Amino acid sequence: MRLKDQAVIVTGAGRGIGAAIAKSLAREGAGVVVNYSRSGAAAKGVVRDIEQAGGNAVAVQADVSALSEHERLVAAALERFGRLDILVNNAGIEFRQPFLATTPEQWDSTLSVNLKGVYFLSQRAARVMLSAGGGRIINISSVHDTVPLANRSAYAVSKGGLGMLTKALALELAEHHIAVNAVSPGAIVTDMNSASLSKPDLRERLLARIPANRLGGVEDCVGAVVFLASAESAYVTGATIYVDGGLLLRRL
Ligand code: NAP
């Protein structure tokens, strides 16, 4: 076990990639705060799975875009586990809308969850980590931190910003022994995209762009996160690991 007796917060961990990350970190011995916004029953299911496998977890409701709710997450880690070693900023939203029709409300909600919430939850967590001598912040970004995506401009802007957030925080926090890194998935089948990926023509077009010739599953994302959470990555900060089956290699 690589994370024995450590404590972690995973945002948006009731389903999708976040749920797989929460379970994988628990398997490595970490106590996990399983954050959810609306998927309470699913988050409790993740906690049950972790406990049945011999791990330790607690489900905590908080909307990461509401800065006043962040304290609840940090307090839960400290109350339940007595510490906070790792924050995984996984919660994210996207919507499909051409740039010319995107509303200020859509922009605000996307940036509030995907970027502002990450920034200020990281600040709160880093203050605790700093006083304990160090920690890890891992941001779940996207290949769209690098390449734009038509009809999802606000999402791509938020992930591009998350790439710079990762580097900027890494720069400032390295002297406090807090490493800040990102994992950027490619096409991973989850609720976020299952509707569009079930369309055969779109699926085929996407597959043609992925050198590994398959879509990713949530389990494909966990290895990079465990590595960045563990002592094996002690000298890694400001980095982004792309988990995309080579998608970014094929631009034409
Ligand atoms: P998903 O299945 O749609 O799940 C989204 C998660 O984010 C849910 O757990 C949801 O929690 C949580 N969330 C949304 N708004 C929240 C808020 N305001 N506060 C707290 N939690 C909130 O998406 P996913 O595919 O697992 O995506 C997870 C991350 O990976 C996202 O950051 C996404 O951008 C990134 N990503 C995904 C892909 C992909 O292909 N799937 C590719 C690249 C990057 P509730 O259900 O409780 O609201």
Task: Describe the structure in your own words.
- Helices cover 43% and strands 15% of the residues.
- Helix 1 runs parallel beside helix 2, helix 1 (16-27) crosses helix 8 and helix 4 (104-132) packs parallel to helix 5.
- The protein has one domain (7-251): Rossmann fold (3-Layer(aba) Sandwich).
- It has eight helices and seven strands; from the N terminus they run βαβαβαβαβαβαααβ.
- Strands 3-2-1-4-5-6-7 form a seven-stranded parallel beta sheet, sandwiched between helices.
- The mean pLDDT is 97.
- The termini are far apart.
- The chain is globular.
- The protein is an alpha/beta fold and 252 residues long.
- The structure holds NADP nicotinamide-adenine-dinucleotide phosphate (NAP).
List keywords for this structure.
252 residues, alpha/beta, Rossmann fold, seven-stranded parallel sheet, 7 strands, 43% helix, binds NADP nicotinamide-adenine-dinucleotide phosphate
